[in-house]
Amino acid sequence: MNDGSYFVGHGNNTFSLNVDPELNADPDLKKMWEDNSLGTANISSSTEIYDLNKYPRGKKGITIMQTVAPPRTVHEFTWLKKWPSGGGKYIYTCLGHGSADFVGDWMKKGTWAWMQYLNGKYDPVVTALGRPKLDGDAIAFSLNRLDVSYAKPYSVKVMNLNGAVVLSKNGQGSQSYDLKGLQPGFYFAKVSGPSNSKVRRILIK
Amino acid sequence: MKRQFKNGVGAMKSKFKLATVFFLTLCSGWVSAEIKKVMLVINYGDGTAIEHIEAVPAFTSMMNALSTEKGFTLTTTKKGDPAASKQAALAAMKDQDVVLFANIGNLAFTNTADQAIIKAFFANGGKAIGYHATSDSFHGGY
Fold first, then answer.
1. How far apart are CA A129 and CA A77, in angstroms?
2. Strands A139-142 vs A145-160: parallel, antiparallel or unpaired
3. Mutate which of A49, A92, A149 to test chain B, going by most B C-beta atoms within 10 A?
4. Which of helix, strand or coil describes residue B117?
5. Could you tell me if A173 lies within 8 Å of chain B, comparing CB atoms?
6. CB contact under 8 A, A79 and B141
7. Between A51 and which of A8, A11, A23, A134 could a Cys-Cys bridge form, CB atoms 3.0 to 4.6 Å apart?
8. Is B71 within 8 Å of chain A by CB?
9. In which region does residue A9 sit, left (phi positive, over 0), alpha (psi from -120 to 50) or beta (all else)?
10. What is the dihedral of CA B70, B72, B73, B75, to 10 degrees?
11. Which one, of A124, A150, A141, lies nearest residue A186 by Cα?
């Protein structure tokens, strides 16, 4: 492998992918797994297995989802990475090398479950009243969309780098603002509540 | 008259129950997020050979079935596509609900401009699944 991870060999028999305890410790992942009856995956044959000398367990933002059952010596097989900021999420699986991986419906079922998870179906819902504090968690930005969640009345202003206000709104509770119409570039989003304000730099693409 | 009054109260109770269920669902549970746009990136390895081609028909077939079943739009970009359409596809990644990197192969995305697009995609909230993608810091995701 180009990063030093190395190929070990093919598993020519049915083998099992166990749910990792890290997944069970995450309520959202656990609910996704249970709701979709993913359980233990028994994959039929010929799936290429990688032994990673850069094991992801314990790395920042990583949650191990599946491991290969003994007697295989490889370990982590599927995991979730959450980006430290911006909300990016990535599920990596070693599955998908051979056509045998697609025998049965586990891959299809798993793919749909993972897609729904990534798209927010299992995220804990912020109440309609919004968060009680205007802190960093009350403001989120991704894919040109600014989400503000604050129980008290607030104003939101989006300014360009010259300080010109390009968007000004008042809100309360959980609101989402579509910024797709703005010219690409950096802006500042300022959310002001009764007792404090928060400013965040955002990039419109 | 009495019957009408009862019906009116019943209707109000019913509406109240519906509103309560909706509110409780919103506040305490999980809500659906509709998946409308999905991109499938297949076999982007920079080598000359198409790698692991045996998995591509199976993967494509699975995703086409899922697209039909669940009602989302599936855009596919794959090795061998003209450079312009590849660039257009990468640029459109940010508009997808989920991107699937299917068997993209070793040495995929060695082009620094492509890497920058992928980095920006995740840094700005992109969601993706990598299947048997290389395990470097971009594709293995750690």
1. 40
2. antiparallel
3. A92
4. helix
5. no
6. yes
7. A8
8. no
9. left
10. -80
11. A141
Amino acid at A136: G
A122: nearest CB among B30, B123, B139: B30
Query: What does R_g of chain A's alpha carbons equal in angstroms?
Result: 22
Window 7-46 of B: residues touching A by CB (8 A cutoff) are: 23, 26-35, 38
Confidence of residue A2 (pLDDT cuts 50, 70, 90): very low
Q: Is the pLDDT of residue B142 over 60?
A: no
Tokens of B100: 């699937």
Q: Do you find a cis peptide bond into A27, omega within 30 degrees of 0? A: no
**How many Å apart are CA A205 and CA A143, to the nearest integer?**
8
pLDDT of residue B135: 43
Query: Count of residues for chain A?
Result: 205
pLDDT digits (tens, 9 = 90+) for A68-125: 777 666 567 888 988 887 788 989 887 877 777 787 889 999 999 999 999 888 876 6
Please indicate whether, in this complex, the C-beta atoms of B125 and A99 are within 8 angstroms of each other.
no
* Assigned token pair, A199: 């400013």
Contact check, Cβ <8 Å, A92/B58: no
Q: For residue A102, give the nearest of B28, B62, B98 by CB distance.
A: B62
Q: Do A115 and B58 touch (CB under 8 A)?
A: no
Distance CA B73, CA A43 (A): 28
Write out chain B residues lying below 8 Å of A108, CB-based: 62, 65-66
Model pTM above 0.80: no
By C-alpha distance, the chain B residue nearest A112 is B66
**Radius of gyration, CA atoms only, chain B:** 23
